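Researcher: I'm comparing several assemblies side by side, and this is the next one on my list. It has 461 residues spread over two chains. Same procedure as the others: predict the full complex and return the structure.
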Amino acid sequence: MIRYSLYVPGDTWLHRLHPLTKLSFSLAAAVIIFGGPGGWLAALLPGLLALLALWRAGLFRQAARTGVRLLAPVTVMLFLIHGFFSPQNQTTLLRLGPFAIGQEGVAYAGLIAVRLAAVLAGSLLLVFSTHPGELVQALTNAGVPHGLSYLLGSPLLLLPQMAGRVQVIQAAQQARGLETGGTLPRRVRALFPLVAPLVFSALLDVEERSLALEVRGFSAPGPRTSLREQPDTPGQRVARRALFVLAGLLLAAGVALRVYGRH
Amino acid sequence: MSLSQRLKADFSTLTLALIAVAIVLNIVLGQVVSLLKLPIFLDSIGTVIVALLAGPWAGGLTGLLTNLIWGLISDPVAAAFAPVAMVIGIVAGLLAKAGLFKKWWQAIISGVIIAVVLSIIAIPIRVFMFGGVTGSGADFITAYLLATGRDLFSAVLITVIGDNIIDKVVTALLAWAIVKGLPRRFTGRFPRASAVID
């Protein structure tokens, strides 16, 4: 199944925040989690803050479910690989037959897992409560070139249409006897008949699309007027600046610590 | 030509419409091939097609935006690999410009080169952000290499190249065949496509 959006419709305080405020939080959190000083603490604090916000907006359950779906395989492999085989392992926690679980590997796997969970929580806060279209519009209003915001927005609308076409092509090719199972050479031979019709038909639409855009003044210079207003407050504007400054300072501190801290 | 003029030529309305469609192809085609249970994901075929038709910058932008949109609509983890997807487009475009996408066997070589170069970008991301792990079957190769005494970097290097080489060769070949198969009336509107077609 192709997902078209992780957006959870609603009207909570988190939904009502300006998209750029949430985007700033997600980006600042990611920078602090991976670049800030303090290892565990730098990862835990933004992560917990994001979880708190998700919980206050009633999105905690969905976040937990998505988090498990996306991170469970990675986390299991992290602990297996680093617990058993990390070259840093010195102290043995547990012995299982010929293999030993090392403390250093488990601690490292734990740190990476906490970081990933924290970054994911920070980004789910944005994608759960913001319709992708709203985010694209906020970026356009903030001065992102409209060619670029077209590229961010139009795939979201094209996706369901193209996914429908995929199913038609699959059904049509199978109806005329294309075998999609069986031996490897047979499956390789089925690749081109499945891929080519979709790609060709999609590419040949491109010309028509660009004509349609041109006659609607797509490449006209000057600012664009938008139909929908997005409420923003002075408080949020200050908060966004503060987040960027904070992330920048913590990143500088984290880099300095990594460069000079080892003497 | 000045830089801004060149950018304008590279990003005409036609190219922008092409990029938008290619982004969707990247996202959708993985679904199509999953039916065949082959060890390929084809999630950069749109990127390579754009790179062949409209050059390295348009190709790079296609890859970058594909992963950002993917992150937005289905899996935020994909956004972390956006720089890798961007490099695939840039490298494919440069290879086409250098005349390495004219014949089918050149497309194979280009696929190998793309796989090797993307690994250079992918490995630091995998090691520092993900501890060298992806949560797929390829992790068992990493585990085996670590168990036989390699360090994490080289274990991930071998895994990433092995995991990508078949996919990128198939992607390059398909993209080459598709661009060759497009009507001249269409490819004629992309000046850079002449580096691939004849």
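Model: For your comparison table: The domain at 3-197 of chain B is CATH 1.10.1760.20 (Arp2/3 complex 21 kDa subunit ARPC3).
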